[in-house]
Amino acid sequence: MTGLWFAVLLAGLACLGIKLAGHLLPEHWLAQPRVARVAALVTVALLAALVAVQTATTGGRLTLDARLPALVVAAVALALRAPFVVVVLLAAATAAGLRLLGMP
Which residue windows are transmembrane per the record (predicted)? Predict the structure, then answer.
């Protein structure tokens, strides 16, 4: 298991633990702003790691292909507050167009 997958697994287990703690711990313990901030950041970090791994790797190896520019187009569309369906269509069209032009 690589270090990246270990970090993803660890972050996933931390998220699961935080969610389970919400059912087991007294409410006033979880009402602290620090707990909410950590829970939000771990969730974002886990999603970012998943996107990075799925976009830039194939079979455990770094692969720079049409998925990376498609991700950049999707990020720009999200920054411009495009609807989610438009973001997905733009990213798919970018990847398809680049593959049509010969990019792997």
Answer: 37-56, 68-98
